[in-house]
Amino acid sequence: MAIELAGYRIHEEVYQSNNTIIYRGQRLRDAARVLIKVLKSNNPSPNRVARLRREFDIGRDMQAAGGIEYHALEPYNNGWALIMEDFPGVTLREAFSERKLNAPSFLETGIHICEQLTHIHQLGVIHKDIKPANILIDPRTGAVKFIDFGISSRLSRENPGVVHPGKLEGTLAYLAPEQTGRVNRSVDSRADLYSLGITFYELISGQLPFPGNDPMEIIHAHIAREVIPPEHFTDASPVPAAIQRILARLLAKSPEDRYQSAAGVRLDLEACAQFLQDGDSQSLMQFEPGRFDISDTLQIPQKLYGRENEIRSLLHSCTDIQSGMARMLTVAGSSGVGKSSLIKEIHQVVARDGGFFLSGKFDQFRRDEPYNALIQAFQEVVRQILTESRESIQHWKERLVEALSRNGQLIIDVIPEVEHILGEQNAPPELSPTEAQNRFQLVFLNFIRVFAAPEHPLFLFLDDMQWADTATLNLLRNLLTDPESGHILIVGAYRDNEVNQVHPLALLFDDLNTSTSAVKEIKLQPLKIKDVYRLLADTLFFPECPEERIDSWVEEYIQARAPHADSKENPDAFGKAEQGMHRMEPPPGHELVEIIFKRTE
Asked: Yes or no: is domain 8-85 CATH 3.40.190.150?
């Protein structure tokens, strides 16, 4: 049913999504053709109203970059009506729904798309919902324009949390792994490049790389599954190897392994188009993507440097728990040396294997609150379960009822979200303080074991364990020495300069080392100069350099940017210093680096 909006004549409905409707119409004062976007609900949520407002604000800024014109935002039905230019085109989904693109057509369309995405990113905007339905193309000219900036962001980096798949921002089939909130990476403009890769894959193969209807399966595929080469689905001409390599780079799971800029993608597509036009099949076969891919913005890599051996130790411990063991691994080092970053690096591995990655952090000012870090961690897993299907929640309810018996209220008292799974519970019988404490420990242990099973091993990260309370340490001792415990790895990070031989944490380690559950330890050493250089090289695209030539330059750089003597060995301090790196002179003889520095001045 058509709407009524003062000052406009509505002609027809052109598109309808779950939350919005778009109409084609005419502005009465000048007869201009317009599109009118409104919310479907008569009582929209404040969040939906705000998204429409954000789309207008960001869309207006995009006009200077060749985006569609956003004319006005008119009050309508407890929200807004968004008035836009009626661009003479159709969405990519409509344009190519009946056919797959051959290589020349794909390259031509892809180049236009990358040009527009480059403009968007240069204006400091992350689109966050790139897909064929949000890209308009004029079939006559090939001109391309992006639409739907409702969830776009002007922040250079965001850190999404774990939410119900239905509440994720964006479209599930096109989400970058980091947009799921289930990997140890922030969201920046490179998330758009992953979504662009999904879009390109669909254009050239005719289908999504990860089809399906199960939201959790799709999320898992984005995080862990490799993409089937698109030529597997093409029944027309084969996909050139160069294009397949471009797609593979766009669809890399880690942002650091992807293209760093839409401009870099465009340059590669243009090179492929030229090779194809010239009939240069040898260059297409030997093509290496990303040779000219340099980000316009400073992107400090989130991957780790100089920690390869430590990561292998963590992965080995993960293998142990998959075989049924209960283990504790400690990571010791000074503040800022990278303990937390190291441990979180395997988050994606745990998710890939179907396990739970939980984390809690002790606080020196909350040491009188028993189990605080454990409660944080298991609130996380309960909230994650509540994002799953009704059938899955019922499965967990049955497991918890079996494990907790009539003591479910004890867990609800400390983790209220559990009531959404178990329902209302009766209060347990009153006991003396000592008996009550022993009962709670037993119930909490049973609760923890529910989440540690062969099909979903439990990885529990406890940070700042030098401030752990006595009750938590006792519970961990009981958990790790109980033969019924299995498929669980507890990784504790602590500052070893604050733990002496009589510290409660050291006493726990001594107890465990005398049992069958020996504690393994990783001692984080300071970074080496070569690792600092690798970080700089990856950030500013330095060429390879002999190790002996970089020591003096890195030392000079560090002293200028990080005056503390040990900052060169401390990733946290160095990361802060690195923000000013583009003003520092590069090592002599680095012609490419000199060009980069001139370019970024």
From this structure: no
